[in-house]
Each structure stands twice: as structure tokens, then as C-alpha cells.
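Progress against Task 2.4 (sequence-to-structure conversion) is shown through the following example record, which the project officer requested during the mid-term review.
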Amino acid sequence: MKKYITTLFFSFFLLINTSALANEHGKTAEDNKAAKDSCEAPAWAKAIGHEHMWKLHNGCITQAEYDKATKE
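C-alpha cells generated for the chain above:
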């Protein structure tokens, strides 16, 4: 019985923590859609230095343009 309660407790704890993480990034979907429409990298991509990578992934630049931009 003790094993069952312990397993239930940890399962509940895990469920609560993962659901909180899922809701943490709710605003980025809107930001990404607006940024994709204009091919302007979102602020988070610029902040971590992945502006060119974001543009390549979203079809805003070609692989050759990406390679040239990252060599600079």
C-alpha cells in the first residue's frame, strides 16, 4: 500500500510540474507568427544570437546566404 501511495504522489507531482512548463511559453506562438510574416527574427532569436539560423529555418534566406552571414 505504501508503494502505491508513493507512486501516486510522484506521478501527481510530475503531472503538475510538466503542465506548468507547457503553459510557460504561451506568447511565443503569436510572436513567431508575426515574425514569420515579415521574415524578421523574433527578439528571443536575436538575443541568443540565432537570428540567421531562424531565418534559414523559416525559409527567409537560402543556405548560401546563411553560410555567408555566419562566416562574417
